[in-house]
Write a structure and sequence with these properties.
Helices cover 37% and strands 14% of the residues. By secondary structure, the chain is of the alpha/beta class. Strands 1-9-8-5 form a four-stranded mixed β-sheet, with helices on both faces. A four-stranded parallel β-sheet has the order 4-2-3-14, covered by helices on one side. Bound molecules: pyridoxal-5'-phosphate. The site of pyridoxal-5'-phosphate (PLP) has 14 residues, from α3.
């Protein structure tokens, strides 16, 4: 059996271990230390933002953002339906209620038109949401300018879930820097990784200081342990921040590699489309720049001689090649069956026909050959 080709495996460079060894040599084995500070500085420069707190995960960053915005039991929070469950779960941690908003077809992310409809209705019912969570799926920036304009009109802050979009931008403004809060993730499958980790971004120094306070058990200034608030253990460890420093140096290489993957797939499927197939991609709107974290295709059997997404997935699987359906929208998830949703059919269609292809920045020419040879069985 050929070795497994993974969807998006970690890709470690030469300096990560050097930084980790440094942490060991200096005994900074704790959720604070010089690597944490340097990693935060690096992220701040990269996202052209003012303040960054390195945390234990992207999920904890979203949770802290909600806490800092005062989201409480019974409040509502609008969230993109087409996403990974971690975008929405922290809403429930606060006892608040998510309302899911469908996507538009250009970027596959939150539809500003539906958002406007939902906000207007919420205003009419005197129940505006406490926050809005758009997501940049697969690295493709959401229509942030429109979303922010509408959110401002109703005075609702935006938590920008940029977990998949480090290195992406709109007109050179980096993803993660648009929202009142921005959220990053460094989980093992993301474009750069600390094995597990995340970050919270804001222009507001006090709020990021507050995030650090809450993330380290909310300890008051006193020689003994005294607490006036409920705290969390959400800070990033200095060892993992060392991995992050090494990874951050490689980010632009990783973006280039993933964008090259996209071009290779695009060429392959464009050739098939000329032969009568109709495979679609997540296209970049003008002035949008995606890190192409994952290359995704849409395979509608109606226009592909009956060929389905699952035909492709299972054929790849038989050759030990991992691929995966696009995110199942939150409004379709059993755990969220109680929610109110604003839908237009877009994310249902994306989930029905969409497939993520192997997209690691360490994919070799050899592995690409294996993938294409395998696809050739179906496209002939
Ligand atoms: C990965 C991811 C998260 C959560 O990040 P973790 O670091 O895994 O907690 C949140 N939202 C999206 C869209 C993600 O892809």
């Amino acid at each position: 059996m050929n070795s497994k080709i993974w969807l998006s495996p970690p890709h470690i460079g030469l300096n990560e271990l050097k930084y980790v060894n440094e942490a060991f040599a200096t005994n900074w084995i704790a959720p604070l230390g010089p690597h944490v500070n340097e990693f935060e500085n690096g992220l701040q420069k990269l996202t052209k933002s003012s303040h960054v707190a390195a945390l234990s995960s992207g999920t904890s960053a979203i949770h802290l953002a909600l806490i800092l915005l005062g989201v409480k039991a019974g409040d509502t929070v609008f969230c993109q339906s087409f996403t990974f469950s971690a975008s929405a779960n922290p809403i429930l941690y606060q006892g608040a209620i998510p309302v899911f908003i469908d996507s538009e077809i250009d970027t596959w992310n939150m539809d500003p038109i539906l958002l406007k409809v939902a906000l207007e209705e919420a205003k009419h019912n005197n129940k505006l949401p406490k926050a809005i969570i758009p997501v940049h799926l697969y690295g493709m920036p959401a229509k942030m300018n429109q979303i922010l304009w509408i959110a401002n009109e109703y005075g609702v802050p935006v938590i920008e879930d940029a977990a998949e979009a480090l290195g992406s931008n709109i007109a050179y403004k980096p993803c993660g820097s648009f929202g009142f809060f921005g959220v990053l993730s460094f989980n093992g499958n993301k474009i750069i990784t600390t094995s597990g980790g995340g970050a919270l971004i804001s222009e507001n120094a006090e709020l990021i200081e507050r995030a650090r306070f809450l993330a380290t058990q909310a300890r008051d200034l006193a020689p003994h342990y005294q607490h006036s608030h409920i705290g969390y253990n959400y800070r990033m460890s200095n060892v993992l921040a060392g991995i992050g420093r090494g990874q951050l140096e490689l980010l632009s290489d990783r973006v280039t590699a993933r964008r090259n993957n996209f071009v290779k797939y695009m060429k392959y499927f464009t050739k098939q489309n000329k032969a009568g197939f109709h495979i679609q991609f997540q296209e970049e709107p003008k002035s949008y720049y995606s890190n192409r974290w994952l290359t995704c295709i849409l395979v509608d059997p109606l226009y592909n001689n009956g060929l389905t997404r699952d035909d492709i997935r299972l054929t790849l699987e038989s050759e030990n090649i991992e691929s995966r359906p696009l995110w199942k929208p939150m409004h379709q998830q059993p755990v969220f069956s109680f929610t109110k949703n604003y839908l237009n059919g877009v994310s249902d269609k994306l989930f029905e026909h969409g497939l993520c292809l192997p997209s690691g920045s360490n994919l070799t020419e050899n592995e690409f050959e294996r993938i294409f040879k395998c696809l050739d069985i179906l496209f002939k």
